[in-house]
């Protein structure tokens, strides 16, 4: 099967992770990469083809993975479209709705293969939840909820990405919460914001509390998320149905209620580890997209829908 030539723009935490993932996947050849930070470039110079400019990356690949902070996504998407290069872009799509509308129109009119890296497009945990919802195994959907607690933000392994602590384009509701808004949207259709409360320690800093009431299809969708208090980090996305309820815990672990109404683990095919299987499935989907085959990667249109919700929350 054909090997796809991939380039990476952005070698921060997530970009660096995908250097490894692309190198492990037999359908991809990592041909070029770049980062604005010379320190980031130096970390990979001995093993990868680190080029001088982002334009050089695009010129040396068939698909470009854009892994820079969201405010810079638009410029590299525009460059990729101009070069007729396929696009795999990190989430969120952006922070400016008007700019993202322009990017969506540009990408769709180009006809180029394009996708956004929301992990729940492919993660086995989300696939199994989606299968049960589609098969009506949960019965009528009564409610959807997402609860998150983070002891600190940014987390220790993100400390170098100082922009994550700023309100302008960072914050965990964009970086983490958007994944779960995407999941609700993928499962149940358009998500609409009804009411929310946002708290920040200072106006220029990222949020430390969000409570929101939304609507997802015919089911109410609630969110309660906070950071900066004692406790263990936890993320839980729960779908409650009339016949069975199901939840995803910490991204990749799945539980469902049994006949006695007790939560019990759900076995899913996620070897050798759930995170590895999720990344592998995402790149399998990317290869399928580039082959012109059916895939389930998130589209730019879906990402714009998520962005509308997230930025609507942050505007309050």
Describe the model.
This protein has 316 residues and is an alpha/beta fold. The protein folds into 2 domains: 4-118, 3-Layer(aba) Sandwich (Rossmann fold); 121-282 and 296-314, Dihydrodipicolinate Reductase, domain 2 (2-Layer Sandwich). 35% of the residues lie in helices and 26% in strands. It contains 9 helices and 13 strands. The chain has an 8-stranded mixed beta sheet with strand order 7-8-9-6-10-11-12-13.
Total number of distinct structural domains: 2
Mean pLDDT: 96
In the predicted model, the low-confidence regions spanning at least 5 consecutive residues are: none
Strand content: 25-35%
Sheet of most strands: 8 strands, mixed
Strand order of the largest sheet: 7-8-9-6-10-11-12-13
Number of strands: 13
For this structure, the quaternary state is single chain
Name given to the CATH homologous superfamily of the largest domain? Dihydrodipicolinate Reductase, domain 2
CATH architecture label of the largest domain: 2-Layer Sandwich
Q: Evaluate the radius of gyration.
A: 19 Å
Sum up the overall morphology in one term. Answer: globular
Helix content: 25-40%
Kindly provide the name of the CATH class of the largest domain.
Answer: Alpha Beta
Strand and helix order:
EHEHHEHEHEHEHEEEEEEEHH
**How far apart are the termini?**
50 Å
Report the CATH topology name of the largest domain: Dihydrodipicolinate Reductase, domain 2
Number of helices: 9
């Amino acid at each position: 099967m054909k090997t796809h030539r991939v380039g990476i723009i952005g070698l921060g935490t997530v970009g660096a992770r995908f250097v490894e993932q692309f190198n492990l996947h037999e359908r991809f050849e990592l041909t070029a990469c770049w980062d604005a930070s010379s320190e980031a470039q130096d970390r990979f110079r001995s093993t990868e083809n680190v080029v001088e400019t982002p334009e050089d990356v695009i010129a040396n690949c068939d698909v470009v993975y854009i892994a820079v902070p969201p405010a810079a996504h638009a410029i590299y998407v525009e460059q990729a479209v101009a070069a007729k290069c396929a696009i795999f872009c990190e989430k969120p799509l952006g922070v400016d709705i008007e700019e993202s509308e322009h990017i969506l129109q540009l990408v769709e009119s180009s006809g180029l293969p394009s996708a956004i890296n929301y992990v729940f497009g492919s993660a086995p945990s989300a696939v199994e939840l989606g299968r049960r919802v589609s098969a009506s195994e949960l019965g009528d959907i009564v409610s959807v909820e997402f609860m998150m607690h983070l002891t600190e933000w940014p987390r220790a392994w993100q400390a170098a990405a100082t922009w994550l602590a700023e309100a302008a384009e960072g914050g965990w509701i964009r970086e983490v919460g958007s994944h779960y808004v995407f999941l609700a949207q993928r499962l149940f259709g358009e998500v609409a914001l009804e009411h929310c409360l946002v708290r920040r320690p200072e106006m220029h800093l990222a949020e430390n509390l969000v409570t929101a009431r939304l609507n997802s299809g015919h089911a109410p969708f609630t969110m309660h998320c906070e950071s900066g208090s004692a406790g263990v980090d936890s993320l839980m996305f729960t779908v409650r149905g009339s016949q069975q309820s199901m939840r995803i815990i910490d991204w990749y672990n799945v539980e469902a209620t049994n006949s006695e109404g007790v939560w019990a683990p759900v076995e899913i095919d996620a070897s050798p580890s759930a995170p590895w299987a999720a990344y592998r499935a995402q790149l399998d989907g990317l290869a399928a997209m580039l082959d012109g085959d059916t895939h389930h990667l998130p589209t730019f249109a879906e990402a714009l829908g998520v962005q509308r919700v997230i930025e609507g929350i942050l505007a309050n």
